[in-house]
Write a structure and sequence with these properties.
Blueprint lengths: L1 H15 L2 H11 L5 H31 L5 H27 L10 H5 L5 H14 L1 H16 L4 H15 L1 H12 L1 H17 L1 H23 L4
Length: 226
């Protein structure tokens, strides 16, 4: 069980610290619909993650039950880690090579988010997880890590739900702060939004290099290369 958590923690951190996920939550909290739009955004992400867990969890369970060992599951997890490493390296390289124009207007999705209704925000949360490859690999890698640990169905379900909640923890904390401390949260959200917008490129490059390296080493180690 501890080996599963050692593999899940990087998935959780990688998912939670995706800049776009956090920045969108903050922007939605500052939008016309405020906290309801942000809650709907997180709910949309949660629904997709849970559905992925149900669908792909069943597939991995059936594959594991037809195999005499867990080697195939471990191999699958290692391959997914390498795919995730490539995704992070590719994202970091793309941001590194991109020409940054300081006078360019902000991306359209940054300004559009301010007018989103809760329904649109929920669809945005679901769409973000569906179109971003890294989120798919994060979830599939988490499921493979849980399956490789061979827990009971109840324990595996709890572990995956914990992954879902912790992967969205920064967004949940931001919403909680806005609800519990609305006056203090406004200035903090403004400062966080400006900082994330200004340093988004550096964050993408830094996180891509760090997590890409970690996942590459973990995947190669699982395949017996290292």
């Amino acid at each position: 069980m501890s080996s599963a958590w050692s593999s899940l923690v990087p998935m959780i951190l990688g998912s939670a610290f995706v800049p776009a996920q956090v920045l969108l939550t903050i922007l939605l909290l500052k939008s016309r619909s405020g906290r309801w739009a942000a809650i709907a955004f997180v709910a949309g992400m949660t629904v997709v993650r849970v559905l992925q867990g149900v669908i792909f969890g069943v597939v991995l369970t059936e594959e594991g039950s037809t195999s005499s060992t867990t080697s195939s599951t471990s191999t699958t997890a290692s391959v997914l880690l390498l795919v995730l490493a490539l995704v992070f390296f590719g994202t970091a390289l793309k941001s590194l090579l991109a020409h940054e124009d300081a006078d360019a207007p902000p991306p359209k999705w940054l300004t559009a988010a301010e007018a989103f209704t809760p329904v649109k925000a929920g669809l945005l949360g679901a769409g973000l997880l569906l179109v971003q490859p890294k989120f798919w690999v994060f979830t599939l890698s988490a499921l493979s890590a849980i399956q490789a640990a061979s827990p009971t169905r109840a324990a595996g379900t709890v572990m995956f739900l914990a992954f879902v909640v912790l992967a969205e923890s920064l967004s949940i904390v931001a919403i909680g702060a806005a609800v519990l401390f609305p006056r203090r949260a406004d200035s903090l959200l403004d400062a966080s939004s400006r900082w994330l917008t200004t340093h988004n490129r550096q964050l993408v490059i830094g996180l891509g290099a760090v997590f890409g390296t970690w996942f590459a080493v973990k995947g190669l180690n699982g395949l017996g290369v290292l």
